[in-house]
Amino acid sequence: MEKKRLFGMDAVRILALCLLYWLHFFLRNGFYSQPVDSPFMIAAVCGRIIFMSCVPMFLMITGYLKCEKPWSRRYYFSLLPILISWAVISFICIGYKILIDGTEKSLYAWAVEFFDYSGANYGWYIEMYIGLLLLSPFVNLAWKAAGSKKMHQLMLAVMVFLTILPKTVNVLILDGENTLNIIPNYWVNLYFLTYYMIGCYIRTYQPKVNRILCFAGVAAIALVFALINQATGHGAKMGDGYTISYNHAGTAGITVLLFLAFYQIECRSQLICRAAAVISSVTLEMYLISCVFDQTIFSWNKGYPASEYWWRGLLATGLVFVLSFLSGFCIHQLSAALSRKILSCVS
């Protein structure tokens, strides 16, 4: 029996990719060098805060889709097409650096760059994802063993305390130089497991929410932290004020609200469903290959005022989206064919 595809999850995945492109647009258009001294820049900071939910959203999608999968050898085989896509894109990116950027390195240095996941600029995600996929069957066992909603909430509370709250509250500076670490910082890099488990929680209990309230909550969180950033930075650059990261309560709140607003959405148009399914199936390749396009296209918009960010960003991210889809689709087809061939040989 063919498993029904969830349009809501395709919508969430595409949303996460679009937010990712916008985040990279802000990375390359000069945003971080501008003072936060106008309503336009405060609006831009609000946008950047919302865009930070892109990677956490991908992690929640993984938890939602994989939380009920048991350990098996075949489960780990799902890494194969991902690794093939990463390898192909890494070679493309290294070729771009050599032929277009004119970067000169020894063959050994290029090999090091390939194997440390920096050949493709966004290859760090694959390095993280390999560990997440290896760990996830055991996280699933712990999640299933917890048994009750109360224990699931307790598990999430502990993970949030260890991985999300430190980056949120350990910001007090009483002597003008050193932060006061109220909560242990040691575990913050395990935030990817926290978002995975939040995805598990939503899959298990299927909460229903008011979408308007979700969007209002997202706007409120973004505005509050944008104003805090502006006030603590005293109108200087964004990096001089209070900023948020992937493992921050503000980011977690926005991610959860956006996920809840979209994950149960339905569509009756078969054409839209098919289009969303095709795009959703190649978002990983689109993410990785986008570095070939975004560093040039997004940089074309450098030096323009914040009042022009949104329409310029819409055009630039749209162009990167189209180019990344065309490239990513071809790479996905290649990696799928190669992985099927390899699996047929080892089965």
Write a structural description:
The chain is 70% helix and 0% strand. With 347 residues, it is mainly α. The two termini are 22 Å apart.
What is the strand and helix layout of this fold?
Blueprint: H1 7-28, H2 39-51, H3 54-66, H4 73-77, H5 79-99, H6 107-115, H7 124-146, H8 149-163, H9 166-169, H10 191-205, H11 211-233, H12 249-262, H13 270-281, H14 283-297, H15 309-346
Helix pairs in contact: 1-3, 1-13, 1-14, 1-15, 2-11, 3-10, 3-12, 5-14, 5-15, 7-10, 8-10, 11-12, 14-15
Please compute the radius of gyration using only Cα atoms. Answer: 21 Å
Distance N to C terminus: 22 Å
Overall mean pLDDT:
92
Q: How would a textbook summarize the main sheet? A: none
Name the poorly predicted regions.
Answer: none
Instruction: Count helical runs.
Output: 15
Number of beta-strand segments:
0
Give helix % range. Answer: 55-70%
- Using the alpha-carbon principal axes, give the shape: globular
Structural class determined from secondary elements:
mainly alpha
How large a portion of the residues is in β-strands, by DSSP E? under 5%
SSE succession? HHHHHHHHHHHHHHH
Structure summary:
With 347 residues, the chain is an all-alpha fold. It has helices at residues 7-28, 39-51, 54-66, 73-77, 79-99, 107-115, 124-146, 149-163, 166-169, 191-205, 211-233, 249-262, 270-281, 283-297, 309-346. Helix 1 (7-28) packs antiparallel against helix 3 (54-66), helix 5 packs across helix 15 and helix 7 crosses helix 10.
Task: Offer a few descriptive terms.
347 residues, globular
